[in-house]
Amino acid sequence: MMQFMLLFSRQGKLRLQKWYVAHPDKLKKKITRELITTILARKPKMCSFLEWRDLKIVYKRYASLYFCCAIEQDDNELLTLEVIHRYVELLDKYFGSVCELDIIFNFEKAYFILDELMLGGEIQETSKKNVLKAIAAQDLLQEEETPQGFFDDHGLG
Amino acid sequence: MPAVRGDGMRGLAVFISDIRNCKSKEAEIKRINKELANIRSKFKGDKTLDGYQKKKYVCKLLFIFLLGHDIDFGHMEAVNLLSSNKYSEKQIGYLFISVLVNTNSELIKLIIQSIKNDLASRNPIHVSLALQCIANIGSRDMAEAFGNDIPKLLVSGDTMDVVKQSAALCLLRLFRTSQDIIPGGEWTSRIIHLLNDQHMGVVTAATSLIDALVKKNPEEYKGCVSLAVSRLSRIVTASYTDLQDYTYYFVPAPWLSVKLLRLLQNYTPPAEDPGVRGRLNECLETILNKAQEPPKSKKVQHSNAKNAVLFEAISLIIHNDSEANLLVRACNQLGQFLSNRETNLRYLALESMCHLATSEFSHEAVKKHQEVVILSMKMEKDVSVRQQAVDLLYAMCDKSNAEEIVQEMLNYLETADYSIREEMVLKVAILAEKYATDYTWYVDVILNLIRIAGDYVSEEVWYRVIQIVINRDEVQGYAAKTVFEALQAPACHENMVKVGGYILGEFGNLIAGDQRSSPSVQFQLLHSKYHLCSPMTRALLLSTYIKFINLFPEIKAQIQEVFKQDSNLRSADAELQQRASEYLQLSVIASSDVLATVLEEMPAFPERESSILAVLKKKKPGRVPENDIKENKSPTPAATNHTNDVNASNASQADLLGLSTPPTAQPHNSSNTGVLLDVLGDIYTKPSNNVSSKTSPIVDPKKFVCKNNGVLYESNILQIGVKSEFRQNLARLSLFYGNKTSTSLVNFVPVVLWSEEQSAQLSVQMKEVEPTLEAGAQIQQMVNAECIEDYSDAPSILVSFWYNGVPQKVIVRLPLTLNKFFEPTEMNGESFFARWKNLGNTNQQRSQKIFKASQPMDLQAARTKMIGFGMQLLDGIDPNPDNFVCAGIIHMRTQQVGCLLRLEPNKNAQMYRLTVRSSKESVSVEICELLADQF
């Protein structure tokens, strides 16, 4: 099972974190710092897999963003790379050639998409079509709501 | 600022932009504090906020939290959002809870009702949201509140597929928290049959769940095997167009395939039914065949997905460890990957080959790739790949290639990365000892290790070389000469001084005849290093000097001068001061006879197991490469060294340095894994084809008939080691339980399985142990036994405990077979044959077995076993030198039974004839049974 997934930038800024095991916040921060430093120090052609404590780390860089997953000894490294790729594809499809800024400004969407792809650290739906369908259904529900907040945000509320 | 999708919270986007525009960390903190104050006042204010505003502020808090700041308010507002009738508000509420709420928070009780409502909603999107939240938090409270609803959702005919998927994984998450959540009975079969579901997404999710359930209760879920094989078979034979959106870059359902292959690895063998096994093997062959087909796409995604399935199939083949053909094919396939362009594939191939190297079927096939692997170790750009290559070389090493591999590892060590040096040193030391046929080679290797990587040579390593040199006469002169030469280097490592000091102190006399290494030269050479060394090494050297006084009286005065120096006699270090003054006094007042007695050559160390491997294992818990197959016997130590006296072994170990404050890394006392992990000792008496797969526990009770110490059981979770002592009809066993995981094992209770009736023959008493075995810790348990009369079989222990909330049971047979109570009896040919005849008079007293050799007939190995069996091996009595003749007395409380034995190997027929004669029939039969199993 996947224990956590981290998205961070080349500058080492954490953009998204998803934990499938419960850890205290302090430990999460420590793990994040340690892994970001380790991975940023690695050269481009190096292997995408690392042994780290009793876990395996699988990471891949897409443009300015690093995607990093921690999996257990029994899990399959190559397929974890493809979980990352599938997630990137989904973000790309949803945002239309996704960039780091999309994820910063719409972080909640990035979470919602991930929750459709993975649940409890296991892959839930591998079909791209089905995940996008689920997200579209969510968006449809939203659009049916009246955008009453529009006025507030423009100081008219 | 990019476009915002959906309903878009403009206020949030503005805030995020502000943060991004901050020029400094201080500015950012200032902006955040301002926002926090604003949100706080909004939440506290009299004006009731509408849903949109709450959502916006909760979302801002979430963003602030994700930036790494602590959030201590807003939870109640988030909880309120859950009951909103607007989906977007509800969704943000759930997100906040999932990200910020800890499993034990009081808030959980408040949200359970909201989740219940959504779970009962007719809108599947709401149900999914609720399930995701339960899975994200996954606490015990959740398990209690929803333990009934979720299994129903999972198997109900009305549930939509997408909800079923979430329900399966949600149940899995809760099952990991709370094992009792899964209802048994008819549910089992309904859950298993999800493997037949039409919807691939449901099957994929369900397979994860079933995998966890199988791990807890393999018997109950056995039915999943044939279904999993059928499903797998359908996938691997499908064309990539068949599965539509579940085909990933031309690979049909890679995720499901991998999960099914993983599921099958829970069973040994993966399929009992021959038909099912046949179909599974066909699947595996198909996967191997497909690997040879030209790729359907140049994209790395295609190759990754395809190879992910291939590697998992190979894992299953290795786990199965019975189809020689598949194992060799797997090995060839991996061999191709070793020179692949993709670093990832090379890395995984090396790792996977490590496992193949431990199978007797594929060990030879792996060795064919030795050159490429050596190149990988030297040339790979990535240290983690080099590390894998080192692991593989270690695993593939055997008698035939040991010299070459060790040499290559030594060469590489000169330039190796600091991060892997220590581990490499341990590996080289282990291999050199294990496969040494010539101990001068072993000595060379270890001295080279010290020269090349002295800083990384731990105490265990240099202790070990000294033990081995002391125990082997033939190598002592060579060791003295070599170490003397090594010490002449202008800068030599302190560890070299330690080894040199010890060896010259014991065996310097063997090279003193040569003028170039006369006593005085030896002394001056050592003493030239003295001032550069730590107090511990100096103390060792002082002991060497007093030994020199005994060996070489001609340099006594010279040495006494050194003892008298203020820096020694008045040293600030109490240990040095004491040694200097005591040794000085000893050299003054003791006669040469007394001196010779006091400083006599060290007695041989009892043959004990190497502790180096334990260090290696401790360094890398959870992942230690194995080097443990077939016939890897090291040269057998002289039979006279063979002893069961554990205490003596402990004592002499501690005395090696002769320091009053023992060094910290003492193998026996301080390392918490200690003897327990010490499996290298196995090489002395191990049956020749013990093949162990990495994941499955090693339980081979037979092996302990001829040996008293070692690892009784080992899995990923627990290791059980034993040390035993026997005196007459009494036995004392120390069992060592080591927790290999990073969590505690609780309710840890070992009990003896031995009926009352049997206890009347062999009484067994076990001390109680603490019920909790902490992570990484080891506990010891004493077992006392008394042989009252003869018995068959041996008692076992049942160890039950909980690991991660899952109950576990392990049954292990104790090394308490009847032969353990043998006392070897020496006798000459005449009296042997007289007794032999005497005992052969009636059929009741003898037992005979003729059997085919189940292992290659290695007489040297057989000899070791016979000695381990406990009787006296009588040489030169039988006219045929290949035959073994033994005598011994079995001690019981009620009587003593004399026992004679003859084992006749017939090499041509590959058969043995074993005859046992004793004064009691049941004894003859049992002894015959026990020993016949060994060959």
Automatic annotation (TrEMBL), chain A:
Molecular function terms from GO: clathrin adaptor activity
Cellular compartments annotated: Cytoplasmic vesicle membrane; Golgi apparatus; Membrane, Clathrin-coated pit
Ranges where the AP complex mu/sigma subunit domain occurs: 1-140
GO biological process terms held by the UniProt record: intracellular protein transport
Keyword Lyase: no
Membrane topology: Peripheral membrane protein
Entry keyword set: Coated pit, Cytoplasmic vesicle, Golgi apparatus, Membrane, Protein transport, Transport
Short name of any one Pfam family annotated for the protein: Clat_adaptor_s
InterPro entries named in the record: AP1_sigma, AP_complex_ssu, AP_mu_sigma_su, Clathrin_sm-chain_CS, Longin-like_dom_sf
Cellular component per GO, a single term: clathrin-coated pit
Assembly mode: Adaptor protein complex 1 (AP-1) is a heterotetramer composed of two large adaptins (gamma-type subunit AP1G1 and beta-type subunit AP1B1), a medium adaptin (mu-type subunit AP1M1 or AP1M2) and a small adaptin (sigma-type subunit AP1S1 or AP1S2 or AP1S3).
Family from the record: Belongs to the adaptor complexes small subunit family.
Protein name: AP complex subunit sigma
Organism: Rhynchophorus ferrugineus (Red palm weevil)
Taxon lineage: Eukaryota, Metazoa, Ecdysozoa, Arthropoda, Hexapoda
UniProtKB/TrEMBL annotation, chain B:
Subcellular location: Cell membrane; Membrane, Coated pit
Chief localisation class: membrane
SUPFAM superfamilies (alphabetical): ARM repeat (SSF48371), Clathrin adaptor appendage domain (SSF49348), Subdomain of clathrin and coatomer appendage domain (SSF55711)
GO biological process, one term: endocytosis
Annotated SMART domains: Alpha_adaptinC2
Cellular component aspect of the GO annotation: AP-2 adaptor complex
Any Pfam family matching the protein: Adaptin_N
Polar residues: compositionally biased ranges: 634-647
Every Clathrin adaptor alpha/beta/gamma-adaptin appendage Ig-like subdomain domain range: 702-815
Bilayer topology annotation: Peripheral membrane protein
Start-end of Basic and acidic residues biased regions: 623-633
Keywords for the protein's UniProt record, in alphabetical order: Cell membrane, Coated pit, Endocytosis, Membrane, Protein transport, Transport
Classification via InterPro entries: Adaptor_Complx_Large_Subunit (IPR050840), AP2_complex_asu (IPR017104), ARM-like (IPR011989), ARM-type_fold (IPR016024), Clathrin/coatomer_adapt-like_N (IPR002553), Clathrin_a-adaptin_app_sub_C (IPR003164), Clathrin_a/b/g-adaptin_app_Ig (IPR008152), Clathrin_app_Ig-like_sf (IPR013041)
Keyword Protein transport among record annotations: yes
Binding-site residues, a 1,2-diacyl-sn-glycero-3-phospho-(1D-myo-inositol-3,4,5-trisphosphate): R10, G11, K42, Y52, K56, Y57, V58, C59, K60
Region annotated Disordered, chain positions: 623-647
Reported function: Adaptins are components of the adapter complexes which link clathrin to receptors in coated vesicles.
Similarity comment: family membership: Belongs to the adaptor complexes large subunit family.
Self-association and partners: Adaptor protein complex 2 (AP-2) is a heterotetramer composed of two large adaptins (alpha-type and beta-type subunits), a medium adaptin (mu-type subunit AP50) and a small adaptin (sigma-type subunit AP17). Adaptor protein complex 2 (AP-2) is a heterotetramer composed of two large adaptins (alpha-type and beta-type subunits), a medium adaptin (mu-type subunit) and a small adaptin (sigma-type subunit).
Protein name per its UniProtKB record: AP-2 complex subunit alpha
Organism of origin: Hypothenemus hampei (Coffee berry borer)
